[in-house]
Amino acid sequence: MSRTMYKIGPVENGGVTANRATDTDRYVGGRIRERRIMLGLSQQQMADMIGVTYQQAHKYERGINRISAGRLYEIAQVLRVPVSYFYEGLGGGSAEDELPVRQRMCLELARNFSQIASERHQEALSQLARALATK
């Protein structure tokens, strides 16, 4: 027997809707993904840190599954941000599914930089970036 969770609110069909992911869930999931990438973590690493499967972490990031308040708090702790971080920018304009190209490049750069094992190489890359930025 399948159980469907319902929430009551001022919506169509007499105020009853299935408990499905919303645009807000997708936005929060996208922010989780951005932050995870900034820290250089894989989905599997984050999943292990919050005690869920890789598949569940993937569903959170895609906004397919809703995230409970307690789980969002755990994710915030692992990603070293306040819970409010995941809501920053919400409602400020249209929600785009794709990150702007420049932002995607920055996230990829941060992920790749964090995976460089040699501190000497990290410092060299950092100095190169500073030199290029001043020209």
In words, what does this structure look like?
The protein is mostly helical. It folds into two domains: 21-97, Orthogonal Bundle (434 Repressor (Amino-terminal Domain)), CATH 1.10.260.40; 100-135. It is 53% helix and 4% strand. It has helices at residues 23-38, 43-50, 54-62, 69-78, 101-114, 119-133, and strands at 6-8, 16-18. It has a two-stranded antiparallel sheet with strand order 1-2. Strand 1 and strand 2 (16-18) form a beta hairpin. Helix 1 (23-38) crosses helix 3. It starts with 5 loop residues before the first strand and ends with a helix. The relative contact order is 0.12. The model is unreliable at 5-17 (pLDDT under 50).
Q: Tell me about the biggest sheet?
A: 2 strands, antiparallel
Radius of gyration: 19 Å
**CATH class type of the largest domain:** Mainly Alpha
Order of helices and strands: EEHHHHHH
Q: How much helical structure, as a percent, in the residues? A: 40-55%
Low-pLDDT residue spans: 5-17
**Residue-averaged pLDDT, rounded?**
81
Describe the global form: globular
Strand segment count? 2
- The computed structural class is mainly alpha
Number of discrete domains: 2
Q: Largest beta sheet: what is the strand line-up?
A: 1-2
The fold-level CATH name of the largest domain is 434 Repressor (Amino-terminal Domain)
Please name the fourth-level CATH homologous superfamily of the largest domain: lambda repressor-like DNA-binding domains
